[in-house]
Amino acid sequence: MNSKKWMLSLLTAVMSVSLISACSSNSSDKPSSNSNTGSANTGTNDSATKDPSTDPITITFFDKNTGDKFDNAIAKEITKRTGVTIEIQQPTGNPTEKLNLMLASDDLPDMIMFDRSSDLVAKYTEAGSIIPLDDLIEKYGPDVKEMYGDVLNKTRFKDGKNYYLSNWYGLEHEPVFGFNMRKDIVKELAPDKADGGVPFTQSEFKQLLTDFKAKYPQMDGKDTIALTMDGENWGGTLGTFKGMFGLMPYYEHDGKLQYDVKDPKYKDMILYMNDLYRSGLMDKEWAINKRQVWEQKIATGTIFSSTGAYWDLGNSNTILKKDKGEDSQLFAYKVVADGVDPSKTTYGGRSSLGWDAIAITKKNKNPERTMQFINFLASEEGQYLLMWGIEGVHWDMKDGKHVPRPETLQAFKDDWAAYTKETGIRKWTWFIKNGPGKDGTPYDLPGRYERAPVDQMAIKNLSDSVFDTAIYDGISPQGGTPEALSEQKISDITKQAITKAIMAPTADEASSIFDKMLSDMKAAGDEKVEAVYTTNYDARKQLWN
């Protein structure tokens, strides 16, 4: 009897020790209040059905876009709601160089933000330096799944897994390039089209430039320019004219992708630009204009029009508005080439897959907590916190809609940069989705809630020109390959030849320069590069399907 009692007591003691040990083990899975990155392990038993942990934890994050400390009002609110403090690692010098160095040295933070279009994402993926997110999203990312939707299908790597989440993702019907013209001059010379809504034909546009030069050879004692361009913004210059002619990033012909210059309409575009140049309607210095010089020229009020995105003219337009009034600013209009359907113009190439790629590295010892943190920021609640601020402080909910406080909007108008730095609103732009929330208000408060007249004109004239470039993203040859070297050589050939063709003294010479460019491209191996484009393009389509 005593023996049985002794055995019973022993079993009870063993069970008690086991329970205590289990409790102790569960407790050690939660990070302590002073835990740093990598020192805490949240365990793997959390699930989306439970409330995410808010125990204090620090996550290191290499953000190529900012180096500010995570200590403003929005940062503190994020930490309050998630328990996560972010330790920002800002690159000194070139972010790309720093990312390459981190990869080579294996000295990695917990999270990294890349330029999504760079080959660094593939390099990190192939090296195993960033981890697949699929299982983490499935367990801890219900809001990620809902918000990203089909974008997750399109950002998969060739092995079918997701290794990053896009930032500034989702196709937004926001215009990009356009022919920006002084509205007050358009009112004088083409009053029926000054308020937008009806595009100019290519002959009408040339006539408008001609009429401007005839009426205003000088302004304020200075020679005028009918059309100028930012010489440092090659993409904006050519992109505007390409939009006019409905040209795409590549020329798809007989089931293959070729360089865009091989589209017959491209030569028509170059000859049209050459005609404007020879007619004295184009800035003679357009190819060497530095960005600052270009802005200064426009700000003098002696320029009638310029290519590029309407927002690129922000600094110049601010000065023009102050000195000469609202309508003296350059507003975006659509010009349509002969034979092109106005609805088929391609001024607005945008990728629905976003600008940036944010990944979790293999050095991250808390991937579950990290995904819970990501899930919060990606959610509607997180988006409005990041981009609008704190409810009851910066905005209020009225009749089911987010309503910004007047002082918040005014502060952005007074000094956007200073207010962002002070409050953190729109400072931490992570996992941002373009477009509106469920109540119809845009996630991007300062950028989209109240639109200036210049913005409104661009939307009116060019929103139907927006198209998704995502299918073409990242299909170039891999860096270091012979095809990649050929691609760079061909890029140099085309840029030099196109510049010369535009500025040629005769149309025949412009045509000859263009034709020689095509033969030089062939000699440089353009067909081998195009074969890579086509292979990667076909693989992309298959992966997405």
Could you please describe the fold and organization of this structure?
This protein starts with a helix and ends with a helix. The protein is built from 21 helices and 19 strands. 39% of the residues are buried. The protein is globular and about 70 Å long. The strands form 7 sheets. The chain has a 5-stranded mixed beta sheet. α12 runs parallel beside α13 and α19 runs antiparallel to α20. It is an alpha/beta fold. Helices cover 46% and strands 13% of the residues.
Summarize the helices and strands and which ones pair or pack.
Elements: H1 2-28, E1 57-63, H2 73-82, E2 84-89, H3 95-105, E3 111-115, H4 120-126, H5 134-140, H6 142-148, H7 151-154, E4 165-167, E5 179-182, H8 183-189, E6 200-201, H9 202-215, E7 218-219, E8 222-223, E9 225-228, H10 234-244, E10 250-253, E11 256-259, H11 264-278, H12 291-299, E12 303-306, H13 314-324, E13 330-333, E14 335-336, E15 348-350, E16 356-360, H14 367-378, H15 380-388, E17 395-398, E18 401-404, H16 406-423, H17 445-449, H18 453-462, E19 466-468, H19 482-502, H20 507-523, H21 526-544
Parallel strand pairs: 1-2, 1-3, 6-14, 9-12, 15-19
Antiparallel strand pairs: 3-16, 4-16, 5-12, 5-13, 7-8, 10-11, 17-18
Helix pairs in contact: 6-14, 11-20, 12-13, 14-15, 19-20, 19-21
